[in-house]
Structures are given as structure tokens and as C-alpha cells.
Amino acid sequence: MTPEAVRNTKFVTTRLRPGYWEEQVDAFLDHVEIEVETLTRERDEAREENARLRAELDRRTA
């Protein structure tokens, strides 16, 4: 999922009442939630690895 994909997502409007098709919006939000969770976890793992490598470098150069 890319920012462009989120920005360009279009939802079908309903005929019976104003608004969007709720199931379509819910499915999209579920997908966004999974992507954000994955990206957050990967970011946190990268930060931890970065800190570990910096500490190792500091230890070796001290």
C-alpha cells in the first residue's frame, strides 16, 4: 500500500441513501490498519537494530 493508493481510493456511493458502501469502506480501513501495523513494527525493529549497531560501534571504537 502506498500513499498514492490511499489518496486515489474511490468508494462506490449507495443508491438508497447518501453515502458510501459501508462494506467497501470497512474493507479498505482493515487493509490500511494491517499496513500501518506492519510498517510500525518494521520501523520499531529498524530503530532497535540501529541502536544495537550504534552501541556495538561505540564499544569497538572506545
Secondary structure: elements and pairs:
Blueprint (H helix, E strand, L loop, with lengths): L2 H6 L13 H40 L1
In a few lines, what is going on in this structure?
The protein has 62 residues and is mainly α.
Describe this structure in words.
The chain has helices spanning 3-8, 22-61. The protein is mainly α. The model has no long low-confidence stretch (mean pLDDT 91).
Shape: rod-shaped
Low-confidence stretches: none
Strand content range: under 5%
- Mean pLDDT across every amino acid position: 91
Radius of gyration: 21 Å
Biggest sheet layout: none
Output the structural class: mainly alpha
Q: What is the chain-wise order of helices and strands?
A: HH
Characteristic terms for this protein:
62 residues, mainly alpha
